[in-house]
Automatic annotation (TrEMBL):
Any Pfam family matching the protein: MitMem_reg
Keywords: Cytoplasm, Initiation factor, Protein biosynthesis
Major location category of this protein: cytoplasm
Gene3D superfamilies noted in UniProt: Cytidine Deaminase, domain 2
GO biological process, one term: formation of cytoplasmic translation initiation complex
Name assigned to this protein: Eukaryotic translation initiation factor 3 subunit F
The MPN domain, residue ranges: 32-167
Summary of the function given for this chain in its UniProt record: Component of the eukaryotic translation initiation factor 3 (eIF-3) complex, which is involved in protein synthesis of a specialized repertoire of mRNAs and, together with other initiation factors, stimulates binding of mRNA and methionyl-tRNAi to the 40S ribosome. The eIF-3 complex specifically targets and initiates translation of a subset of mRNAs involved in cell proliferation.
Taxonomic placement: Eukaryota, Fungi, Fungi incertae sedis, Chytridiomycota, Chytridiomycota incertae sedis
Family: Belongs to the eIF-3 subunit F family.
Top-rank lineage group of the source organism: Eukaryota
One GO CC term on file: eukaryotic translation initiation factor 3 complex, eIF3m
Localization (cell): Cytoplasm
Subunit: Component of the eukaryotic translation initiation factor 3 (eIF-3) complex.
């Protein structure tokens, strides 16, 4: 097989391009959104790699928009890839097929949208791997996610690229041009709570379920007091009201079901008792497993 050339271009931003005298090629409209689960999965794959392996590679799963210009990366799984030498890449296709088939049983809407690798820069082997995944994502172009596993704060942790062929049309020596595209991290409210907990100092121990519930209630009360102060200021003429914010507050108040205080207290206590029962059963199961393990060691 002929050796395709390798080219990586980083186009300047819109303001920089406007001040540049040289013409800049137009970058196609393409955006990516990335879930935090994918980042942690890639970093976990990197930490579990063999010592002789410099980087890890895997497949990306997600959904595309109808026109293919937007990609949401929701999941991933590792692949066995051997870079045995220069321009010699071996991919475990059987593992890829089996893992993708298993994932389709759980999330049928998610398809292969590209591949990931750890590192700080692209290398010539990326051309071969990208060419392989182009067959998996055809007719769409695959997305390459590059993650800096060193977590260097001076560099961007996650970068996404797409490629386009360059060279003489219908030529055997067509090359690949990698273009960096915008990438945003998208997370839900539950994921944001987990990330906030993980970003706390290591000196602060993990709080219990009851302490976490207490912190949540205190934050809700603080937000209610802040809204109440704002409404009182607007009603008293001390502050100019915002119509958009007023409509938002009205919609939020109307969405809250009307319930008597005693009924609310009863429902809250029932949910609290259910949660305490789950915690009790979990602790009981943990204790039984610990006893069974010790008995097994004694036998």
């Amino acid at each position: 097989m002929t050796n395709p050339s390798f080219l990586h271009l980083s186009f300047p931003s819109g303001s920089a391009a406007a001040t540049s005298a040289a013409p800049v090629p137009a970058v196609p409209s393409f955006t990516c959104t990335l879930g935090p689960v994918v980042l942690f999965s890639v970093l976990d794959h990197y930490l579990r790699r063999p010592e002789s392996q410099s980087r890890v590679i895997g497949a990306l799963l997600g959904v595309r928009s109808e026109d293919g210009s937007e990609v949401e990366i929701r999941n991933c799984f590792p692949l066995g890839v051997s870079e045995v030498g220069e321009q010699q890449v071996v991919i475990d296709t059987d593992h890829l097929t089996q893992m993708y088939a298993l994932h389709q049983r759980v999330q049928s809407r998610e398809t292969i949208v590209g591949w990931y690798a750890t590192g700080q820069t692209l290398n010539p082997d990326s051309v071969w791997i990208h060419e392989f995944f182009a067959n998996e994502t055809s007719p769409h172009t695959p997305v390459h996610l590059l993650i800096d596993a060193s977590l260097n704060p001076a560099q961007q942790i996650a970068s996404t690229f797409i490629s386009t062929p360059v060279g003489v049309p219908n030529s055997e020596n067509m090359g690949q041009m990698f273009i960096q595209v915008p990438c945003n991290v998208k997370y839900s409210a539950a994921e944001k709570s987990s990330l906030d907990l993980m970003t706390k100092s290591n000196d602060n121990p993990l709080v219990s379920d009851m302490d976490s519930l207490e912190d949540t209630v205190e934050k809700v009360l603080e937000m209610v007091e802040r809204v109440q102060t704002y409404v009182d200021s607007v009603a008293g003429g001390k502050e100019v009201g915002n119509k958009v914010l007023g409509r938002y507050l009205m919609d939020m108040v109307e969405s809250v079901p009307v319930i008597e205080p005693k009924e609310f207290e009863r429902v809250f206590n029932e949910h609290l008792q259910d949660m305490l029962m789950v915690v009790y059963l979990a602790n009981l199961t943990r204790t039984q497993l610990a006893i069974a393990e010790r008995l097994h060691k004694m036998v």
